[in-house]
Amino acid sequence: MAACGRVRLFLLIVSVSFCVCRSAGDKIPNGNANPLPNRQPHPAVAQYPAAGNAGPGAAVSQSRRAAGWKLAEEEACREDLTRLCPKHTWNNNLAVLECLQDRKEFNLTTDPKFESVAVEVCKTTIPEIKECAEEERGKGYLVSCLVDHRGNITEYQCHQYITKMTTIIYSDYRLICGFMDKCREDINALRCGSINTGEKDIHSQGEVIACLEKGLVNEAEEQSQRYVIKDECKKAILRVAELSSDDFHLDRYLYFSCRDDRERFCENTQAGEGRVYKCLFNHKFEEAMSEKCRDALTTRQKLIAQDYKVSYSLAKACKADLRKYRCNMDTNLPRAREARLSYLLLCLESAVHRGRTVSGECQGEMLDYRRMLMEDFSLSPEIVLHCRGEIESHCSGLHRKGRTLHCLMRVGRGDKGVVDDLCQRSLQTLIQEADPGSDYRIDRALNEACESVIQTACKHIRSGDPMILSCLMEHLYTEKMVEDCEHRLLELQYFISRDWKLDPILYRKCQGDAARLCHTHSWNETSEMMPPGAVFSCLYRHAYRTEEQGRRLSRDCKVEVQRILHQRALDVKLDPDLQKRCMTDLGKWCSEKTDPGQELECLQDHLEDLGQDCRDVVGNLTELESEDIQIEALLIRACEPVIQSHCHEVADNQIDSGDLMECLIQNKHQKEMNEKCAVGVTHFQLVQMKDFRFSYKFKMACKEDVLKLCPNIKKKVDVVICLSTTVRNDTLQDAKEQRVALKCRKQLRVEELEMSEDIRLEPELYDACKQDISRLCPNVAFGNAQCLKQNKNSELMDPKCKQMITKRQITQNTGKIFSVRRHCMGQRIPNKMYTSRGRLINYRLNPVLRKACKADIPKFCQNILNKASDGNELEGQVIACLKLKYADQRLSMDCEDQIRVILQESALDYRLDPQLQMHCTEEISRLCAEEAAAQEQTGQVEECLKVNLLKIKHDSCKKEVLNILKESKADIFVDPVLHTACALDIKHHCAAILPGRGRQMSCLMEALGDKRVRLQPECKKRLQDRIDMWSYAAKVAPAEGFSDLAMQVMISPSKNYILFMIALCVCVLFMVGLLCGRITKRVTRELKDR
């Protein structure tokens, strides 16, 4: 063995000397040091004769060694080579030397001949390098100094020699120039080995450097640092790591730790330029990777995180870009920070995001190291330091392939507990450094979890495109999404949503707007004064401004803001401002709401119960949704069939302005409407009731009127009632100018119609009528609010519910009357539009009647009004009172016209006469069951009651029928049966007579008594029947007062005779008084003269 060592030493000097003496044109392929036969040996070789006769195995002529001699052929070395070195290295003498040196069999580094060769070969280079020229000779440090500065060596022969010597130098830390002097105390303090090394471990000095490297990286990860390595030693450690960055052989500890793994994973990877390092990094988490190698690789990666120059490939690829964008020229920052990998990545990523050009080779290296940061959390010392507790509690045992980092993200989201603020900030910083938003492949855990979804749902997008993440968000909670991908995606998006710059598309489109409107910093700068999500909140506030409000976003930026809003609506935790302000309220009110979209719905449902900060942010978000309902992505998905069938035109509009939600509400009863969509639309309608601002169209149309007329009201129901009341009062009082603007009145009508469809849209009414709904309308959908109105007269209905229904009807009918008047301006309005049953029961439900009879009602029916309150129905009493006065011909002309219409309608359908229906229900079922069952609106039920007047038992019913007979005397139109029978005769004989006040009835009576006039048989028969009925009515129901008596006289066929007899009686009484007055009472003159 000793003989082989001497042969090797001689060969090394010969080979190196020969190598460096060759010209550039005579380079030896594959590094083989076999010399040419005629080449003279280097002079330095002649100075080493001892190596030639150092044993029997070395007794070979020098001429033979210079003529293609191979070390493997030496008998003294054959056994060692066969045992220690692979066969493919035997033909290369330098490869054999490296193999034997790596196997720790020999120490060639202490021989002084190396220095003498270096002085000879590098005689022109040494003076140019000041540090090496000043190095003391004889200690072996000259070669180490040249190795340290080999990047500055331009002389070819010297460079070749130093390259060959590098592996030898790095086998012993003592040979590295100045290293021992700078790190002597640290080596002893950290117990990394003795500087007085014995023969037994003479080649284990790589472990000393590895120990120092571990101490350096542990220092950054420990809060209570037991020992701090001196700065000059830190620089020396990083410098050694940097110099060994191009060839993994130079990192002796890593090389010996990973020899087998290199053969297993990177056998075909050529050494040099850091290629083996990168290959091993890529296989770091493979199951077959040895733990010792994995630890050594992790240590090296941590050194790269502290100084990017430790990565040869990264430093080389990005050198020009770093200089171009001045990423290492910031004089305000300490050198240690400039050198950090994170600073380099942030600086270059900022350039990329600003649209600057960064070389493709550099971007490729950045991508590799960003992926490396996401795969192994331990490469970020801040996370190791600040998240240690969270890792131990929730994420132990998940170290590989980015799982620990995603586990910490999940803790940060609040899914597994509360995370420390420092840990949260460290995670946010790491996400910014790695920037996975620009390329999903950086996040290995996400990439593996979502690969199947990307292949199916996002296959149309180029691999690595930032839109992949957006595509995944669009398919969140759909059938194409898988659970594991869903979790990884939400964990990443939680942190991306905290910094608007982490969405590269948003940043590219909106950086100008953000700087102009939100005073933002550059990409790689942050402000402690600006909370997470503040910039995006600023952007979306400006996104929905009108042209009048000014300072709007550009079109491209607005599109991106809308995209982000649509994505954030899927999960409340993606809105940082909302989660921060509503954390307490979410726990208090919505802890059980865990399904997609339920948390926001829950907050909206409990809006009145929320804290002020949370209420404000939920209100702002809901107000935004009212303008652009497409933000509610889950609702839009559920309503896709309805949108495609009925709302596709408004859905395609880039500006929504509330049109889509209005369309969905209008088509809520279409067959395409599914349960999910109906529930979502109804929920949004219910939320709108909480604040009028939540209805975009209503807010824009009426906000000025609300501020002026209803200043302190927020609830939409109350605002609608307030504005409707104002419209009603202006309508009834004939105001010259409506106080509510026309555009608001139009929208007010829409809101009233929506509220009338579903009782739940009026919370107070719904609360008051809950029991009545279950009792009277158990099988009726909430959308059919007519059920309660139809059962309003039921004895089972609660008085409070009945009263509130009446109030709502009064308000709603005012809006309807105004709407009809507006659309029929200048035309005669068909009065039957206002004669619904509700308006006949309560005159307040008929604003037109109220307006026409505003003087008559207090004059004739005040006693009824005195007994009523705002919520009472009055059961048609006021209208009945006016009917009687109509028969007496005492109403004003306008009021008489309205009552005539009511009489005509109620005569056709007895159900429209509440008093008749209430008092004659039993008689109708007994005497007129057949006519009532037919439900024909021809007046047959009333005719039946008239014919059977003598058979009616109940006095109240008989009185109502007599009133009907009395009313028919005043106008033939209120007697549909008689009017139908005599229509032809009225046309022939009474065409010139105006209707009303009994004039046409008197005309027919005169024609009946005139023998010259021939009436239709049916008309003649009906008239005769009416005369008999009136005669009976006069007997049964005598006049109740002088007015009734006068009316009976005026409408009597013997009117002239009766009036003559009354006048004759008056004249007789006058004459008797005139003649007999002096006889009955004589007065003496004396009394007169007093």
UniProtKB/TrEMBL annotation:
Region: Disordered; residue ranges are: 30-59
Q: Which Pfam families match?
A: Cys_rich_FGFR
* Bias type Low complexity, positions: 49-59
Query: Where does the record place its Cys-rich GLG repeats?
Result: 228-288, 357-416, 480-547, 552-611, 672-731, 739-796, 890-953
Q: How does it sit in the membrane?
A: Single-pass type I membrane protein
Residues that span the membrane, as ranges: 1057-1080
Q: Subcellular location, in the record's words?
A: Golgi outpost; Membrane
Q: Do the record's keywords include Repeat?
A: yes
Task: Give the molecular function GO annotations.
Answer: fibroblast growth factor binding
Could you identify this protein by its name?
Golgi apparatus protein 1
- Species of the source: Scleropages formosus
